[in-house]
Amino acid sequence: xxxxxxxxxxxxxxxxxxxxxxxxxxxxxxxxxxxxxxxxxxxxxxxxxxxxxxxxxxxxxxxxxxxxxxxxxxxxxxxxxxxxxxxxxxxxxxxxxxxxxxxxxxxxxxxxxxxxxxxxxxxxxxxxxxxxxxxxxxxxxxxxxxxxxxxxxxxxxxxxxxxxxxxxxxxxxxxxxxxxxxxxxxxxxxxxxxxxxxxxxxxxxxxxxxxxxxxxxxxxxxxxxxxxxxxxxxxxxxxxxxxxxxxxxxxxxxxxxxxxxxxxxxxxx
Length: 269
Prior knowledge:
By secondary structure, the chain is α+β, with helices and mostly antiparallel strands. It has three domains: 1-51, no CATH class; 56-97 and 220-239, no CATH class; 102-128 and 140-211, no CATH class. It contains ten helices and four strands. It has helices at 14-17, 24-34, 40-48, 74-84, 102-129, 135-138, 142-156, 165-196, 202-211, 244-268, and strands at 58-63, 88-97, 213-219, 232-237. It has a four-stranded antiparallel sheet with strand order 1-4-2-3. Helix 5 (102-129) crosses helix 8. It is extended, with a radius of gyration of 32 Å. The relative contact order is 0.16.
């Protein structure tokens, strides 16, 4: 979209597709149009699902459970809902986990241990060569100095001597492990600061758990799309009161017929 010169590239990003980001330009457009067009507020409420027009359907959702996995595909789900309840599915909200598998985490940990042993050997050799140090150097924190040296060495290192896909795989696993460890350190700093300020850290752990997942929306997916456990399917459900006005005239006619028969009997008497 950027190569074509379009200004809608933000619509194809994952945060926007997951509903976590709202375009401020869209809000500005609706605001200044509402001063000129009186119906813009009512249309916006209809688009957001706050209001419904008489006889129209409304937006709802259903969650895929283990009992619904026999449907398998989106096409069969569409056919089942349309034939049974009249609901029309329009999209799927899916959440996937970004956690590493067991084998990948073991490989990453082994690579990390190999680097730690190498760093410890280099630091031991460095201490042997520089035993006579000044008092100012001894007052520094060795742990912080060690971490800074490790991060500088990791940034400058091009990677282990592996060829092909193995080197790329180990590099990607190492980056994932570094990002996860850095996130854990930041989380601990924030939690300690919250405890120091007397704030509760109950909901903070739940917020960190959501950061390890990726949520996105599939709008009108292909018929062969597999439905998965805990998928949220958006539905357009018909108005349950839409069929009541059709039955009211027949009821009124029957009442009129009964009253007409009673009046005829009274005139005959």
